[in-house]
Design a protein that fits this description.
alpha/beta; 5 strands; 274 residues; 10 helices; Rossmann fold; 9% strand
Length: 274
């Protein structure tokens, strides 16, 4: 049976943990989290690189990007980053058995890639469910979430949050409900939050995504899926701007390379992390 001293130590430890996790987010030393938003092909990675160059202090921020894990998993499985490709006209003139072999090969790639992407999202950010309040020591009911009997291990993002790291969460932010909940969770844990939305016309994103595939780089196989993602995000931007207020930045990434991040954007990022 635990001694009274042992029990007291446990209570003190839990009390300290609670106060560390629930500090006032307005204090100068509170950690920062920057949500990136932008559909595939918008150029988020380029903007993140520009942000780090313009604001050297962002070098201390951990970048959370499921695409990094996805590419690792794809390489480990010896899969190309893009699906097998063939000129449609050539496909039409091929012998039927060869055309069918190509279609099967492409279908197998799409299936394997989808599974690995799901795995990467789950390991890094928690997938569609996002940050788990329960794994972070918060009441899930507060966020309208049913408690899990077995919450499971922390994701890469949650581990960094537990360590109170400054974060750049590099994703599409196309799931408004999840991002809104994660913003609230982070702020309840003492974080200050910002969003940088990278915006381009739908046809520009679709074209850039296609060009990446032609170069053998990672891309979303379906142009229709890219267009749908872009349109969904564009509809959410007014809500995100209202939620983040002065800590919302919209970047027009149709401007020439290196010019999309404006001087006022850089000043806002400096002020946010100061």
């Amino acid at each position: 049976m635990p001694s009274s001293i042992h029990i007291l130590r446990l209570l003190v430890r839990e009390s300290l943990k609670y106060h560390v996790l629930h500090e006032d987010a307005s204090r100068p030393g509170s950690p920062r989290a920057i949500f990136m938003a932008g559909c595939a092909g918008s150029g988020k990675d380029t903007v993140v690189a520009d942000m780090r160059q313009a604001v050297p202090a962002l070098g201390n921020f951990e970048e959370i990007n499921p695409d990094f894990r996805y590419e690792e998993l794809m390489h480990a499985a010896e899969l190309a980053l893009g699906p097998p490709r063939m000129d449609p006209k050539k496909l039409e003139t091929m012998p039927p058995h060869q055309a069918e072999e190509f279609r099967q090969k492409r279908t197998a790639w799409l299936s394997q890639a989808a599974k690995l992407q799901h795995q990467a999202l789950g390991q890094v950010t928690g997938g569609s469910k996002g940050i788990s309040p329960q794994r972070m020591g918060l009441s899930p009911e507060k966020y309208d979430i049913k408690p899990a009997d077995e919450p499971g291990p922390q994701t890469e993002l949650e581990v960094h949050i537990s360590n109170r790291a400054n974060l750049i969460i590099n994703g599409t932010s196309a799931n408004y409900k999840r991002i809104s909940m994660e913003k609230k969770i982070l702020e309840d844990l003492g974080y200050e939050t910002m969003m940088v939305a990278v915006v381009v016309p739908v046809d520009t994103a679709v074209g850039r995504n296609r060009e990446r595939g032609e170069k053998g780089e990672r891309r979303v196989p379906s142009s229709a899926a890219v267009a749908k993602q872009c349109e969904k995000l564009l509809n959410y931007l007014p809500s995100y701007e209202a939620d983040f207020g002065n800590n919302f930045i919209e970047v027009d990434n149709t401007l020439p390379l290196g010019e999309a991040l404006l001087a006022n954007d850089i000043r806002k990022i400096h002020a946010f992390i100061s």
